[in-house]
């Protein structure tokens, strides 16, 4: 058994990772973050587990001048198509297939913009948006939400959590690119 100086509680681990305790708990329940249970029934996460999560950062020095876009979508075709098109526009592209991967990538690469699908298995895009916008270190990241379920309610929901933009998935790539460039230009004062 590890001694108490070797592990974090769920709230402590969540704070270190810059996510809320519900998100950390969901990661533990899904098996994405390994934890053990104390004899008193409390979940604990080893320091090394959290350190490994935070240190698994990709090498960003290869493209220091490129803007980083994180595509979060559970549809492989959508991720691949947008990746190819955005790389052709000279962006550095990262992808995530679910909420857990998105949370890690946001912490690791601190993208300039997140292209976010609203409806995925497990954690939905609205919760990812909320997590980004409530974190003081991440809230400057631009969140452009996209959905195949374009309704006023979905639009209101994601804007209420701080999204910077919203598009139905039926728009063409030129429209998506125009929004991305506009948001990045506005943020950079151009």
Share of helical residues: 40-55%
Task: Name the structural class.
Answer: alpha/beta
Total number of domains: 2
Report the count of strand segments: 8
- The ordered string of helix (H) and strand (E) elements is EHHEEHEHEHEHEHEH
The fraction of residues assigned to DSSP E strands is: 15-25%
Major beta-sheet overview: 5 strands, parallel
Within CATH, the superfamily of the largest domain carries the name Response regulator
Query: Biggest sheet, strands in spatial order?
Result: 5-4-6-7-8
Mean pLDDT: 82
What is the annotated CATH architecture of the largest domain? 3-Layer(aba) Sandwich
Q: What Rg is obtained from the alpha carbons, in whole angstroms?
A: 18 Å
Detail the topology: elements first, then pairings.
Elements: E1 7-9, H1 10-17, H2 21-29, E2 36-37, E3 43-46, H3 47-55, E4 68-72, H4 76-88, E5 92-96, H5 99-109, E6 113-117, H6 125-134, E7 142-147, H7 152-160, E8 165-168, H8 173-187
Written overview of the protein:
The protein is 44% helix and 18% strand. With 190 residues, the chain is of the alpha/beta class. The strands form two sheets. The protein has a five-stranded parallel β-sheet with strand order 5-4-6-7-8, with helices on both faces. Helix 6 links the parallel strand 6 and strand 7. It is elongated, with a radius of gyration of 18 Å. The termini are far apart.
């Amino acid at each position: 058994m590890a001694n108490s100086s070797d592990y974090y509680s769920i709230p402590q681990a969540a704070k270190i990772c810059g996510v809320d305790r519900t998100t950390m708990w969901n990661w533990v329940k899904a098996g994405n973050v390994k934890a053990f249970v104390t004899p008193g029934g409390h979940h604990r996460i080893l320091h090394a587990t959290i350190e490994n999560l935070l240190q698994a950062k990709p090498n960003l020095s290869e493209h220091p001048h490129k803007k980083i876009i994180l595509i979060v979508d559970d549809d492989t075709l959508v991720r691949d198509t947008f990746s190819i098109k955005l790389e052709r526009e000279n962006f550095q592209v990262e992808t995530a297939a679910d909420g857990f991967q998105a949370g890690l990538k946001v912490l690791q690469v601190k993208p300039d913009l997140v292209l976010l699908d609203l409806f995925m298995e497990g954690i939905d895009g609205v919760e990812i948006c909320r997590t980004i916008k409530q974190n003081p270190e991440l809230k400057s990241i631009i969140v452009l939400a996209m959905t195949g379920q374009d309704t006023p309610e979905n639009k209101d929901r994601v804007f209420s959590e701080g999204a910077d933009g919203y598009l139905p998935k039926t728009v063409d790539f030129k429209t998506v690119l125009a929004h991305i460039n506009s948001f990045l230009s506005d943020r950079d004062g151009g």
